[in-house]
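Hello,

Our lab assistant flagged a job as stuck in the queue for most of the afternoon. It eventually completed. Since we weren't sure the result was trustworthy after the delay, we are filing this so someone can double-check. Below is the sequence as submitted and the structure that was eventually returned. Let us know if re-running is recommended.
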Amino acid sequence: MLFVGVFFATNATEMIVKKSGKEFFIASRIDEEHVIVYNFRNCMFNDLFTFYKVSLLKDSGGIIPSNFEKLPAIILNESTSDNIGPFAVKLGGWCGGNHAYKDEKTRTARTIWTRVLVDGKVVLKDTTFVAHDINIEVKNDIYSPISTRKVNQTIEFIDKLCLERVRYRVNGGSIEVMVEHYYKNKLPVIIERYYGMQSMFREEKWMLTPNGQYDDWTPIEKVDRFIKKDYPYFNRFVEKNGNSYQATYISPKGLGERKEVKPDDVVFIGNSWTKSYHKTIGGASRERGDKDSWIGTYTWFAEPIIDANGVFAYEGVINGKQALFVNWVGEKKEIEIPLKDAGVFKHIIENPSHAKIRKTTESLYIKGDKTGSIILSR
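-- returned structure --
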């Protein structure tokens, strides 16, 4: 598995993994012209281990230079704030993610354990690999902001809110995120807000929310928020800047089912402090022994399959399998999406408008009577 040399040749299913001290760098060719580079490290105010930077660089004839992590690249996503979390606890304030305690100087969470598996093997030493399967496992302690004491002018937490377990599965241009919370708090709390899945995509100019209010590209300055009862099937948003896209999909399972968001509460917040958010908890109680979870996929790409005439399609990953995401606007559309081997997408994940789907070896055909969305997977 160890590959020594100046350059790394890679195809669409291979990734290059480099461990350097406490950081990991992962590179993957996502199309004929671009390579995506992930940097995992401890970051944000609470120094939690997560993806810190996602960058785009030009591929060079199908090979990735051995110093790919040092090359000039376009930064797509940078965790100077939360991508995942945090919690807003009634009477206590924010905790987890990038958030300090109310004194604005005390950390509210910490990473206690990290494990990186490359093709099933734990990586301990600085090295470089060619890999097909990358899983990064993290455990974080998140402290309850309603249970503190002051010792020598320093705030100390006397109760944990929860143990947070996060697994990142890197697959080409996507990172699947699986989050579990095991609540340890001795004193019951009310979670006023938990966003879960957020976006730190840089320089966004347009927003698209399939099954949501913004069903066609909307300038970001005109994007606000919408509520659950108006858009019950909403599960993803896509951002576009001048050179790339980021899609943020949350599975309709666990917290992604949004049972703990009231009908009149918001499920999406856009253009807020340069960020956009999924909301998954609004005013729910938690006590010792409770647990919850969610699964989502971040996907980055320079070119979608199609983005024209009210039709948008891209490929991502769901549950480790290749997935196709399509949405369209307008009445009585018959859409042809050029796509080699469309027949591999055998499973319908989502089709709320009951559009008709036909597949050939060269194209995917969709016939819908109204604005709609589908998700297919292998």
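-- support follow-up --
The delay was a queue issue, not a problem with the job. The result is valid. Confidence is low (pLDDT under 50) at residues 1-11. The domain at 80-301 is CATH 2.70.98 (Beta-galactosidase; Chain A, domain 5).
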